[in-house]
Write a structure and sequence with these properties.
By secondary structure, the protein is of the alpha/beta class. Helices cover 38% and strands 17% of the residues.
Length: 238
């Protein structure tokens, strides 16, 4: 169990796995009379800052919701811009290879541009030996879609329905082999899961905030972790 020393006198237990719904980019831009594209660019910078901070404090797993299966419904210009920012991030990750962060992308890649898929595979391969933060980026991801994908794999293997277990389904998810998230953070003032890690989040703790994602700072993450340390996780027990 990792201990995070916020100050000389305060020690906090780190969750093993934090998941974040990066929400509020569009509203952040609207509040500043800026195009939504500016909000996504600002949100991308915040993502990088938070990921580096998580690695610095010793977090083992971080999963971020970058683009959902439902986000294709947004205007084409906005979707194209999000994909452009994502591609730029992938191309830039080589500059960060000394940070010891292992990258993994979860979601259905088949709908993504072939060049983006190639860059994703390269990033995963090049960072595979990293021993610091394990960073999952959920791209074209949906929780229900993930469960359907897992069940289809089980059916394809010819496993009898009576032999299917919860562990078997967990092993077919994109996060197979990883601990479930202990703590899910959603800024922006929304109070819903939005089809995010719905199987894995069965016993997660939640933390909601009115802060829009581009304004989310490491100090806000500290506050969330402080609150997490006040929770009594019983997992159905007493």
């Amino acid at each position: 169990m990792a201990i995070f020393k916020k100050t000389k006198d305060v020690e906090l237990v780190l969750p093993t796995h934090i998941a974040i719904i990066m929400d509020g980019n569009g509203r952040w831009a609207k509040n500043r009379a800026l195009p939504r594209t500016a909000g996504h660019a600002a949100g991308s910078k915040t993502f990088k800052d938070i990921a580096r901070y998580c690695n610095k404090i010793g977090l083992k797993y971080l999963t971020v919701y970058a683009f959902s299966t439902e986000n294709w419904k947004r205007p084409k210009e906005e979707v194209d811009n999000i994909m452009k920012i994502f591609k730029e991030y992938l191309e830039d990750t080589k500059s960060f290879k000394d940070e010891n962060i292992q990258l993994q992308f979860i979601g259905d890649r088949s709908a993504l541009d072939e060049e983006i898929q190639r860059l994703m595979a390269e990033c995963e391969k090049e960072s595979a030996g990293s021993t610091g933060l394990h960073l999952n980026i959920a791209i074209n991801y949906g929780g229900r879609d993930e469960i359907v994908h897992a069940v289809k794999q089980i059916v394809a293997e010819g496993i009898d329905a009576n032999d299917i277990t919860e562990q078997m389904i967990s092993d077919k998810l994109y996060t197979s082999g990883q601990p479930d998230p202990d703590f899910i953070i959603r800024p922006s003032g929304e109070y819903r899961l939005s089809n995010y890690l719905i199987w894995q989040s069965a016993y997660a703790e939640y933390w909601f905030s009115d802060i829009l994602w581009p304004d989310f700072k490491p100090s806000d993450l500290d506050k969330a972790i402080e609150d997490y340390n006040k929770r009594n996780r019983r997992f159905g027990g007493v």
